[in-house]
Structure formats: C-alpha cells, structure tokens
Amino acid sequence: MVLALRAGSVLGFLLLWEWAARVPISFNFPSPGATVVAMLALLRSGALLAATATSLQSLALGFGAALAVGVPLGLLMGVVRPIGRVARVYLDLLIALPAAALVPLVILSVGVNIVSSAVIVFVFSVPFVAMNAYGGVRDVRPRLVEMARAFDASRWQVFVRIVLPSATPMLLAGIRYALSRAFVGLIVAELLLSPFGLGRLIMTARSMFEHDRMFATVLWTLLLSGAALAALARVEARLLRWRV
Amino acid sequence: MSDAGVAAVPIAITGVSKAFGPVQALADVDMSVRAGEFVSVIGPSGCGKTTLLKIVAGLVSADAGRVTVGDRTVRGPGRECSVVFQDFALLPWSSAQKNVEFGLLLQGVAPAVRQERARRAIARVGLTGFEAAYPAQLSGGMQQRVGLARALAVNPQVLLLDEPFASIDEQTRRVLQDDLLRVWSDERKTVVLVTHSMDEAIYLSDRVVVLSPRPGRVHQVLDVPLPRPRELGDVRASAAFAGLVDGLWKMLRKLQ
Fold first, then answer.
1. CB B134 to CB A244 under 8 A?
2. Per residue in A29-58, is it b (16+ CB within 10 Å) or e — as a string?
3. What is the C-alpha separation between A126 and A131, in angstroms, rounded?
4. Is residue A155 included in any domain, yes or no?
5. Which terminus of chain A faces fewer neighbouring Cβ atoms within 10 Å, N or C?
6. What residues does each domain of chain B span?
7. ipTM above 0.95?
8. From the candidates B102, B146, B192, which should be mutated to test the interface with A, based on the most A CB atoms within 10 A?
C-alpha cells in the first residue's frame, strides 16, 4: 500500500515535471529526461564527483563539529539547568537568525576555503543538535531517576543509565533534522562563496545558461541528502527498536 | 536470592515529621515493623503514606525523627531495601531480563552472576520465557512482575511496596497478591506495603497501620490474626476476613 503510494507519487512528480517542461513555463526549463542525460554526462566527466567530494568535506567538517559541540552542550544544558536557561536564548537566536546573513562575516574572518563552508554548515546545524539534546534530558521521567536512586545509584550512574538513554530518541531526531539543515547550509554557503563544490557547479551552469546541468546538480544534491537522511533514519530505527 | 541467606531485619520509625512547603504531610509518626513481618500502611488519600515509605527507602529525608533499618540509621538509599513502584518504573529501552538485572548492574555485580540471579528472580515471579520482551510488549500485571523480580534480584532484607497493584485489574491483582505471599513465605523478608485497598491490606498483612488524614499520624494499629498460608486456603470467603475488612472500613470512614 505504502509502496504503491510512494511509486505513484514519484511517477506523478515526474509527469508534472515533464508537463512543466513541455508547456513551457520558461524557455529553458529542462525535462526530466534532459536532466538525467546531463547528470550522466556530469558523472562521466568527473566534475560532479569532484564537486561532491569537496562539498562532503565541508559537510563532514561542519556537521562533525556540530555533533562534537552540540551533543555535550545540550546534555550539559539539561543537567545543569541554569546553564540551560542561559544558553537556550543564544541557540534560539541562532535558529531564528537568517544564517545566510552570516556568510559575509565568515568570509571576512575565515577567508574563502573549505573551512568557511564548514563554519556555515556548523552554524546551520548546531542549534538543533543542542536544543534536542537539552529537550531530551528535560523529558527524563523523574520516576526512573527515583528508581535508580532507590537502588543507590551514583549521580554518574543515573546520568549514564537513565538520563542518556531517555534522551536518545529526541537527540537522534535532532541530529537527523540538523543533518538536513546542514545540507541547506552547505549549498547556501557554496552558492554565495562560490569557488567550491556543488554550489559552484550550480552557479557555473547557471551563468552559462546550461540549465539542464544546473538542474542535474540540484537533483544530485537532493538525492545525496535524501540518501544521507535515509541512512540516519535506519540507524535511528535500529537504536530505538524497543519502541514497539 | 534465598541461598544468599540474608536474615530479615526490623524497621523502627520514631517521631518522623515531614512538611512540603506549607503542607504538613506527616506529624510525629511512630511505627515499628518486626524482622520478617508483613505490615501494611493504609489511610485516606493524601495522608502521606507514600511519603512515609519514601522516607524509609531513603528517597525523601524527614524534617524530624529517625528511621532505622536493622542497625542502619536511614540517611539515604541503602542496599537492604528494595522498592516496588505503583507505575512499575521499568526502563522502556531494556528487555525484561535487563530490567531485572538493573539493581545488580548498579551494584557492579559481574555479568554472568547478574544474568543467573536475574533468571532465577524471573522464574520466581513466573515470567520465564518473557526475558527478551520489552516492557511495552507486556501487560500491566507482567510489568509489575518484572518490577517485583528486579526488587528481589538484589536480595534485599526489606521490601517496600508503594501501591504496587493499584493500576492492575482485579483478577490479575489477586494472582499477584498470592505470588507475593508465596515469595514472602519462602524468603521471610520484612515487608512494608502502602495500599488504599482494605481488602488487600487485610489479606496480606500481619498488622495494618492506619494513618489519619493530613498531617498523617498513626491513628491505630490493627492485628490480623488470620491463619497462614493464606494463599492456599479460602481466606477471603471466611467470616473472620469479612469482619476484619468491615472493622477497617468503619475505622477509615470515621477518618474521612
């Protein structure tokens, strides 16, 4: 049932796209077929893979840092409540901030390189990791803490055995959402910074009116983030098997 | 488990008071439980009976007075007591087996020993075959069996039960009550049971302590001279049982 719906929705989307290309909405709106052909050509030339490798470096660097900072920060915020109440204000601001506005600032301070994209990725994703870790800790059932205490658990044992596993579902949901934000941040950074990665490929194709190549790169990016999110969802399902 | 051979210990509660902000929950409570005795605490809702149990467990500190379990003056949780909670308080991310092992895990017991002792505790409460199930896959009655097995696995001298069967249906509750009596008569632990069921208090206990409404203090202590083992006979059908429940009801009605 779900499978049929899924297949149907993909087919519907492709038909809509084909129709939009034929109408035509714009004189250079590429059809699905043309896009796929362009993507294959880009793959064969190696341009797409090279750009992907560069982009993924920024992504891994920025998102890795977001995890390394966001998870401990969020947990600390949850365990030491005063820190949580202070830090959440900044994180809320960071979420509300149009992060693209930071790009000029980042270029000024970091320069234009892989690291500057990584910094934007970090800024885009870290508040969601930290806020969900924080929320997860705050949602711990007090009764479970009491139960562990009744067995004479130390504070550390309560943290490791009760708080951490209780916070895991929300933490993982935050990480998954942060990853999608990381992709957004990556492309925004590369579109604006330009000289690297998939964003640059999109911009170059656009400036040369190769709209099929531009569409192919966008589609490729979409597939990439979709695959990454699906992989993460799998890990999540595995870790949360107990939720029957 | 019984092979570790711990002797039951008495509990002494003297002059215990507790207030939560402006609300006086307990006022000058004196109560004692003999080693191996089964005592229930009953009273109108809000009389502080659960608070009293938590003070004995070391989870809540008293404002005044003193509690001793065996030789130890209670200043925090200790290993001689195990608590069984009304809402089971199971770890939803752990299997029944891991839940039962939890107390032993916290005590640093080696994995092989832990598994073996948990398996035996699971067998005691009749859950063999459900070791791998997660709490969400078990009925309320089975979840509380896990809770009881977890309490027994650490081999405590004292069992503290906080309305353990309150959220379980009547038929299952009776079965669990009999199982509890069987475990108790095998292992002779000191048991304190907080309940709001008169029937349950009379059926299970040697003595029933009746607390007055807030602030809770000991109103009266009722002896239950019904013969044991009660789980084998037809105690509930006896006139003596009905008379005791009726007496308890009259006492509680006056307190409302």
1. yes
2. bbbbebbeebbeebeeeebbeebbebbbbb
3. 9
4. yes
5. N
6. 2-80+158-255, 89-155
7. no
8. B102
A92 in a structural domain: yes
For B34-81, what is each residue's pLDDT tens digit?
Answer: 999 999 999 888 788 999 999 999 999 999 999 999 989 999 998 899
Q: What is the pTM of this model?
A: 0.85
Dist. CA A43–CA A213, nearest whole Å: 11
**Distance, CA of B156 to CA of B57 (rounded, Å):** 12
Percent residues over pLDDT 90 in chain B: 77
Selected residue of B91, B101, B105, B109 to mutate for chain A interface (largest A Cβ count, 10 A): B91
Which of B195, B183, B181 shows the shortest CA–CA distance to B151? B183
What is the residue type of B247? G
Domain B2-80+158-255, CATH among 3.40.50.10610, 3.30.365.10, 3.40.50.300, 3.40.50.2300: 3.40.50.300
Its domain, for residue A144, covers 54-239
Summarised one tens digit per residue, pLDDT across range A108-166 is 888 777 888 899 899 999 999 999 999 999 999 999 999 999 999 999 999 999 999 99
Query: Which domain CATH number covers A97?
Result: 1.10.3720.10
In a domain, A122, yes or no: yes
Among chain A residues, the shortest Cα distance to B137 is held by A244
Structural domain total, chain A: 1
How close B27 gets to chain A, by Cα (Å)?
24
Interchain CB contact of B61 with A (< 8 Å): no
Q: Is A239 on the interface with B (CB under 8 A)?
A: no
